[in-house]
From TrEMBL:
<dbReference type="GO" id="GO:1901678">
    <property type="term" value="P:iron coordination entity transport"/>
</dbReference>
<feature type="signal peptide">
    <location>
        <begin position="1"/>
        <end position="32"/>
    </location>
</feature>
<protein>
    <submittedName>
        <fullName>Putative ABC transporter substrate-binding protein</fullName>
    </submittedName>
</protein>
<dbReference type="Pfam" id="PF01497">
    <property type="entry name" value="Peripla_BP_2"/>
</dbReference>
<dbReference type="InterPro" id="IPR051313">
    <property type="entry name" value="Bact_iron-sidero_bind"/>
</dbReference>
<dbReference type="InterPro" id="IPR002491">
    <property type="entry name" value="ABC_transptr_periplasmic_BD"/>
</dbReference>
<keyword id="KW-0732">Signal</keyword>
<comment type="similarity">
    <text>Belongs to the bacterial solute-binding protein 8 family.</text>
</comment>
<keyword id="KW-0813">Transport</keyword>
<feature type="domain" description="Fe/B12 periplasmic-binding">
    <location>
        <begin position="84"/>
        <end position="341"/>
    </location>
</feature>
<dbReference type="GO" id="GO:0030288">
    <property type="term" value="C:outer membrane-bounded periplasmic space"/>
</dbReference>
Length: 342
């Protein structure tokens, strides 16, 4: 006979709820096992930040690139300030970021994915027009100014070929590998020369202060970079190495020449120092780096045995340049020069 008593009804409801909970948990467990993701109880993936690679800490892991760009600067003549610019070389974007005028960039004549990630979401969201922009794209950008470099003459030609550019002013920024000169020229084109001078002075003052406060001259810092093709001991040339020199950081004797040196069996220990900053170019560089860092020979050197090895962002330290990137490198040094991998 069917029991319809209140007690029996409650018992069935409890059993059903338990069964449902069991099946949900089993489903989530199976899902988690199948994709190796960390998940909340409702199955949502938990976002995590990698903070260590090969037992070595990453400097400023999880840095918020939305904070990279500096506060806006004003034009010398606000009434004549330009508000719409097309940039033909992504290398010029750092200057806009450092001047706090990223919103002025309406388009970049470059391929998708070519805008450096460290410039943050504001500049990362700028439309990329590729190397053959359409008239509609240029018309939408409606530039008052085009900024180019000596190597992007073809891009300027492609803009003119649309027939929309008309008499829009085109300014070619020189400077080459001298990021300070590039920054100064971009600022001049945007009528912000005085602001640029102030921004450079602020950086120089802070770099000197950090070097003094952290007693930088008494730390011999080694720079090791893993590329897809080699392990390199960096010299004093290049973007980040030059910044370390400005801060006052000392370098090991074997690393005081401008050019990088390829690591071999014969010079392997030249990579050692009081502290070693390591970086990797791409996945293949990272694979090479992990293999070296986990090797017995590496572990037997001084800095690794003292846990004085730290990862830095290769894209910021070596693959770019500019005042905004310089601040990121300076902040990396500030937060890590006297640190260890825990």
């Amino acid at each position: 006979m069917l029991d319809n008593s209140p007690t029996t009804g409650r018992r069935w409801r409890l059993l059903a709820a338990a069964a449902t909970a069991f099946m949900l948990a089993a489903g989530l467990t199976a899902c988690a096992e199948s994709d190796d993701e960390l998940r909340t109880p409702d199955g949502s993936i938990i976002s995590t930040v990698t903070s260590r690679i090969a037992r070595v800490d990453i400097v400023n892991a999880g840095r918020d690139y939305a904070q990279t760009c500096l506060a806006p600067t004003a034009a010398a003549d606000p009434a004549a300030d330009i508000s719409r610019v097309i940039v033909t070389d992504p290398a010029l974007l750092d200057a806009f970021c450092a001047l706090g005028v990223g919103p002025k960039v309406r388009a970049v004549t470059a391929a998708d994915g070519s805008i450096p990630a460290y410039l943050g979401p504001q500049l990362g969201a700028v439309p990329t027009l590729g190397h053959s922009p359409t008239a509609a794209q240029v018309r939408t950008a409606d530039p008052q100014l085009v900024l180019a470099t000596p190597g992007t003459a073809a891009a300027v030609g492609a803009l003119h070929a649309t027939g929309v550019l008309g008499s829009t002013e085109v300014v070619t920024i020189g400077g080459g590998d001298d990021w300070r000169a590039v920054f100064t020229e971009v600022a001049k084109a945007l009528d912000r020369s005085a602001a640029a001078t102030e921004r450079l002075a602020e950086f120089d003052a802070e770099a000197a202060r950090i070097g003094r406060v952290m007693d930088a001259p008494h730390s011999q810092v080694s720079l090791v970079r893993f590329t897809p093709d080699a392990e390199l001991i960096e010299g004093t040339g290049g973007f980040a190495p030059a910044l370390l020199t400005q801060i006052g950081v000392a370098r090991p004797a074997a690393q005081r020449t401008p050019e990088p040196t390829v690591v071999t069996d014969a010079n392997f220990t030249a990579a050692d120092g009081d502290l070693i900053y390591v970086s990797a170019q791409g996945q293949r560089g990272l694979d090479r780096g992990v293999e070296v860092l986990e090797s017995d020979r590496w572990q037997e050197m001084g800095a690794p045995s003292w846990s004085r090895v730290l990862w830095v962002d290769d894209a910021v330290w070596y693959q770019t340049s500019g005042l905004a990137a310089a601040w990121l490198v300076l902040n990396d040094v500030k937060s890590s020069l006297n640190s260890t991998s825990s």
